[in-house]
């Protein structure tokens, strides 16, 4: 049972009135420039980690030596590596650019909530990572549309203060935009954080790098950011799912086919049919293009995907939907089909990580009834799930160069709310539709 103070906080949070912040933002900042830093050809660079199934972590790094082994040594004591794992590697060509050797090695099984020390390719520095917990509480940091500006650097510094277990990124990573070495500098920028905690990502429009005669428009993204699609029975790196503690997270592809006859839609139905809300009482979904957006930017771009998939997510009683694309922040009430709905999802737009294109300043007036809070500032989110029913969401504005909490609310999950029972028949009907 919750104590009376927590009940009061929850009630007050749920009564927050709609608001548009009048915060006056500082001016834009420049794109970061990275000095040339020559390293030995076998030296591991751009190290990042991601979840790779239960009790397993995928470690990814790049070397300029194509013969460097895809081996990770690891253990629970510094420089005392008790286990070794061998993985795979790849590389790609893109016009006149040729990538380094990109290594992907899965280690495990690992203990939950445990610090590990590891070394890539048998040389270079020692890194350390912490595995997520197996039970509540668990904390996610959330920020999309990162890029490589001085605002990005501020965002990353503030995320580092978050004490998060997993980072969620709803698309638009490097803003390489065909300039392939920007993928390399992005990897170096993220390494201090992404080598220590799992980063789980999905694609945005800036990951699409289509040129004539290149079949895979997501070639750089798919080569560098390998997600656990095989573990979730998805055949695409553009959409997948995973579990953390008592949370099931679904990453959808705004730029993969999503109509009712698409592989992604069929996969989503199959994935939702396996969700056990007693084991994972929280259900989160991420994709790039927001469905609920009162900003003037990117109006209506997510409407087709919403028309197809929102009934499915509503029937499954999804708790939270995170999106990016719009370079601003916005949080909704629980909503479905454009109206407040106690069994709908809370939609949060958080495409404000620090991109080079700047902020989306203009909002539509009057503010829609479903919109609770909106502000055009750079920032990041912190989602701390305390137990099977209660979680604290905070959005921290980064524009002050300090980590300032600008929006926060307690969110009660739909687990145990009566919505699951109410929607059970509706979900079963959708799942059996051809």
UniProtKB/TrEMBL annotation:
The protein's UniProt keywords, in alphabetical order, are: Glycoprotein, Hydrolase, Signal, Zinc
Q: Which cofactor does it need?
A: Fe cation; Zn(2+)
Q: Which gene encodes it?
A: LOC105174855
| Every Calcineurin-like phosphoesterase domain range | 142-329
- Give the reactions, separated by semicolons, that this protein catalyses: a phosphate monoester + H2O = an alcohol + phosphate
Name under which the protein is recorded: Purple acid phosphatase
Signal sequence: where?
1-21
What is this enzyme's EC? Answer: 3.1.3.2
Q: Which InterPro entries match?
A: Calcineurin-like_PHP, Metallo-depent_PP-like, MPP_PAP, PAPs-like, PAPs_C, PAPs_N, Purple_acid_Pase-like_N
Residue ranges annotated for the Purple acid phosphatase N-terminal domain, each copy included? 44-131
